[in-house]
Amino acid sequence: MIPKSGNRFLEKIMLKQTSHPGLRAPGTKRGRRAAPSRKRGREGWGPATLSARLGGHVTLEAHADGDIVACFDGHSVGLGKFSAGAADRAQGLRMGLPLGSFASDRRSIDKEVHRLVRRLARHGLLEYRLGRSPDGEDQVVIEPQLPDYWPRTPPLGDADVLVLSRFAYMRRRGNEMVLESPRAGALFKICDPKIATALAVLSTPQQIKRLRRQDGFPGVELLALLVDCQILFKIDPARDSGLRPAEGNDDLVLWDFHDLLFHARSTEGRHANPMGGVYPYAGVMAPLPAVRPGWPGKKIDLRKFSAAPPPCPPPQAGEGKGGGSPAAKRLRERHSTRSFDDRRPITLAELSRFLDGTARVQSRFSSRLDLGDGGPVVAYAVRPYPSGGGSYELELYLAVDKCEGLARGFYHYDAGGHALVPIGVRAHELEALLTGAAYAMAAPAAPQILITIAARFGRISWKYSSIAYALILKDVGVLIQTLYLMATDMGLGGCAIGSANIDLFAKMTGIEFHVEGPVGQFALGRGTAEAARPPVSGSPPRRR
């Protein structure tokens, strides 16, 4: 099941400002930002200033009682009560309020503005501009990709040597040029072509002292912001043996660029792009047919063969006669269940049998690689489903809402020991995980159990180049079908979910997103009477 969603970070954010001096009243049009000044001296406008401002479609609403409310896309979120002076200062967020103007917190009004700006940032309602003057042209616009992003400028010295991350890339987005990375908490819209040219020089290590002497030097402020987002990183030429191992830890070394980019951009949590079933091309072209148009030529009709009874072994006790093979029967009965009967939740005994039949380690063995000069010994642990190269890189984490005999919480399934190990998480994180699954399924309530399928990426990328992440996704598909068939066989309900929040999982487990992270989800429980009934011939189609 693929979730229906626009921008899961903030969708197209819209706020409305009303009812306070300095904040726009209802019905008034938002004025254009001041025309940029074109006057430049030989040294530019001086040091660039980093400012926070509302997103392109953002306004604020100030109430008479002091409440300031953010409203976007028909939704609203309260930001708290603020003084009239703070509300007046907030009007500067339309054009951009320098972060340094309220960072000191010396005055009470500065503390209020700081609190307001921080709350706006947590909701993803801000962007940040880097420019030489408040009313001049933007040099760079920083667009947060994580809801808790806040720009930071770590100290840099003239002797520091910087280089672009191998995960950084620059591309055209509409009529704009953006610089981003799957590791970054924000993307950078490059408004000045000279900055793009200057950054290209950093494809090879450069000392900051040397960069300062070049035309179009972008400024230490921008370099520090890019280091903070891991788009640039510092190296020690005297000690580092190569750029790839110098960037991050061993787990990061194992990633290819395209694999990490696809992982970060095809899941929730580390980008602000529209995601899920939003039908972006519904107004552009007609949908493709459900069944591919046939190839020309004479057809060989297979229906008479499939209608004949298969030459299968005699039925086992309790199976009855006829009806085809049990495997074919289960495949036809398999369907997605989105509504669960919380009056009769799944039991711990049923969950144990389910995990035993789908994911438990069945056998172990080791084998030495033949690499010509004595290779390492690789351990293998076989499970009930196939896996690329016998890697079995997938792990199961269970968010339990309702299960008879098992406390509500978050657990890891130890496939080797056939045991559940509780993991301490914050209540709101567990709730967010379960609520997100319900939203993705368009279900009335959270599933009884949500299984998050996580991958230990290094287990498979240690062997495979270029195809590692593709193999992981194939393994996920095979495992999900296995989960479906076991649920069907046990009379339980299940539903595959097409997205997972990799940032939320990282916070819950304390594991960096590139080390181990979610690549799929599966809802499990006892379905309601209607949901548990398989579709029959001639009945209306059911959503799968």
Q: Mind explaining what this structure looks like?
A:
This protein has 544 residues and is of the alpha+beta class. It has 16 helices and 21 strands. It has a 7-stranded antiparallel beta sheet with strand order 5-1-6-7-11-10-9. It has a 6-stranded antiparallel beta sheet with strand order 18-17-16-19-21-20, with helices on both faces. A hairpin with a 2-residue loop joins strand 9 and strand 10. It starts with 48 loop residues before the first strand and ends in a 12-residue tail after the last helix.
What's the gist of this structure?
By secondary structure, the chain is of the alpha+beta class. The chain is built from 16 helices and 21 strands.
